[in-house]
Structures are given as structure tokens and as C-alpha cells.
């Protein structure tokens, strides 16, 4: 499931965008304050939708922070500020698109589908592979292997950190979606996944786990 962050201090507009995205099966977190985004932007989002003029930290400052963290995550700026210098500055700081308010909701929907909805395939040992949009794991005979919701979320998280160690804290934030998870719960999840994946697909690291990808 694709995960999108919205920063918009107009509650009505934020709710309209959130409802539209949730109908398309996106996981959506909506914030109305830049400080809240600063506290949460590293929680595994696939796309950001940022208003500029919001309380505390403005959208363009957050855009630069996001780009310092990751240059590849799509960022769409939505703003009623249509001064040429503002639009130019947004692109200089690294936004992928700029949508001027007011806009039709289908305009934003089309931009999100274009920028954010991409099939990502991760390949594991023995020709197993996982499609992050379909959220389906296939074995080497192209047969689907049943996964629970949390098992799918873990593999989606692994696709964002290919062959890198993923901390227990990040697993808790992303897979348990804000709920608390004990170390034992995470270990149980990994144990179940190891039974479904090829041997040695998941390594235990000092601070968490690493999924070994072949491509």
C-alpha cells in the first residue's frame, strides 16, 4: 500500500484530498502544521503533498529538508501563492510538480497517479519476487504466496531500503502503523516471513533486519 503525507492547514481541502486518496487504497496521513511533518516525514512515505503557507515550518523549507533526506521521493506543492519567484523556488528546491489553488481534485489525482503510483518489484533468492503495488509475493513458479497485512508492509518497507539494515524502531513505525510493537512481536513476524521466503532472505543485523535482494 502506497503511503502519502499531506500538509494542508485548510481542513476541508485536506479531508477532500484524504478521502480521494483513501478511496484509491492509499494510506494517508494528514497534518496541518509544519512541525508535525518535521517529526514524521521519515516514516516511510512514498509521496508528499505540501502546502506552502502553513503554521510554524512552511512547505518550501520542509521540501528542502525532505530533499536533503531523499532526492527521489515525489513531492507535489499545492499553493495559492502563484508568484513566479515562489513557483521557481519550489522547483529549485526539488519539487516534482506545482499545483495552483484552486484546483480540481482530479488534477491532483492525475499528478499523484503519474508521479507516485509505480510498480516496484523486489527480487529475492530463487527467483521469488514481490510486487509492492499488487502487494503479492510470487515464488519461482509464478504462484502467489499468501501474506498477512504486516508481512506485506514489511516487504514494502524492505523495498525502500534494498539490502540495507532496517531498525526495529522503523519496523514498528511502518509495519505497525503507529501502534506499539514489542521486540517479540517483530521477531514473530520475521520468523513467519522466513518460513515463506527462500532461505537466507532475511538477515539479522545489530539493530534490526536486512532483506537480501538479488536485483
3D architecture notes:
The chain has 215 residues and is of the alpha/beta class. It folds into two domains: 3-115, Response regulator (Rossmann fold), CATH 3.40.50.2300; 121-211, Winged helix-like DNA-binding domain superfamily/Winged helix DNA-binding domain (Arc Repressor Mutant, subunit A, Orthogonal Bundle). Helix content is 40%, strand content 21%. The chain has helices spanning 11-23, 34-40, 59-69, 84-93, 105-115, 149-160, 168-175, 183-196, and strands spanning 3-7, 27-31, 47-51, 75-79, 97-100, 121-123, 129-131, 136-138, 144-145, 165-167, 202-204, 208-211. The strands form three sheets. The chain has a five-stranded parallel β-sheet with strand order 2-1-3-4-5, with helices on both faces. Strands 6-7-8-9 form a four-stranded antiparallel β-sheet, covered by helices on one side. A three-stranded antiparallel β-sheet has the order 10-12-11. A hairpin with a 3-residue loop joins β11 and β12. It is elongated and about 55 Å long. It starts with a strand and ends with a strand. The mean pLDDT is 90. The modification 4-aspartylphosphate is found at residue 51. Residues 120-215 bind DNA. Residues 120-215 form the OmpR/PhoB-type domain.
